Amino acid sequence: MINSIVLTGRIVRNPELRYLPSTGNGIANFTLAVSRGFKNKEQIYETDYFPCIAWKNKAEYIANNFEKGILVELKGRVRIRNYKDKQGVNRTVSEILIRSIKKLESKKSELPQEIKENEAFYEMPEEFNENIFRAIETDDDMPF
């Protein structure tokens, strides 16, 4: 079985970096807002919010190079964690443990890092006709 997730969204707040006293390892956390890509009955895009966590070198890298508002793609795994809150109530939280992350743009809407100056963006025409292919007539028997 595989526990893997890929998300594209915007960082909701600046990543918070702290160090664990027991090991000295860095841990960074932030929330990623991911649009569902469609509008609800009220014609509003719905958004899901994912708590994300990075450890050690990744934590320091994220804290120093990522900020609120930028569009990122991250890959990781889902962790379900149970704990008791301050009132003693059992809680369950889903978190994304980050394996890799890359900037797709900054808050200033710069081009993605992977796109070179001379590469073009291609968009599908608004009036795209899916039925542009014609059937091929043949008398040959299918080989299977």
Tell me about this structure:
This protein has 144 residues and is mainly β. The chain has a single domain (5-105), classed as Nucleic acid-binding proteins (OB fold (Dihydrolipoamide Acetyltransferase, E2P)). It has 1 helix and 6 strands, in the order E-E-E-E-H-E-E. The protein has one helix at residues 56-65, and strands at residues 5-11, 16-19, 26-39, 45-55, 71-84, 90-105. It has a 5-stranded mixed β-barrel with strand order 1-3-4-6-5. A hairpin with a 5-residue loop joins strand 5 (71-84) and strand 6. The longest helix is centred in the middle third of the chain and has 10 residues, at 56-65. The protein is globular. The two termini are 33 Å apart. Pfam families: SSB. Homotetramer. This is Single-stranded DNA-binding protein. One of its GO terms (biological process) is DNA replication. Keywords: DNA-binding.
* CATH level 1 class label: Mainly Beta
Give the biggest beta sheet.
5 strands, mixed, barrel
Uncertain runs = 111-133
By CATH, the architecture is named Beta Barrel
Backbone structural class: mainly beta
The helicity comes to under 10%
Distance between the termini: 33 Å
> What's the alpha carbon Rg, rounded to whole Å?
22 Å
Identify the strand order in the major beta sheet: 1-3-4-6-5
Label the overall shape: globular
Order of helices and strands: EEEEHEE
**Overall domain count:** 1
Number of helices: 1
The pLDDT mean sits at 82
| Total number of beta strands | 6
Estimate what percentage of residues fall within beta strands: over 45%
The CATH superfamily is: Nucleic acid-binding proteins
What is CATH's topology name?
Answer: OB fold (Dihydrolipoamide Acetyltransferase, E2P)
Organism: Acetoanaerobium noterae
Pfam family, one: SSB
GO biological process, one term: DNA replication
InterPro entries: NA-bd_OB-fold, Primosome_PriB/ssb, ssDNA-bd
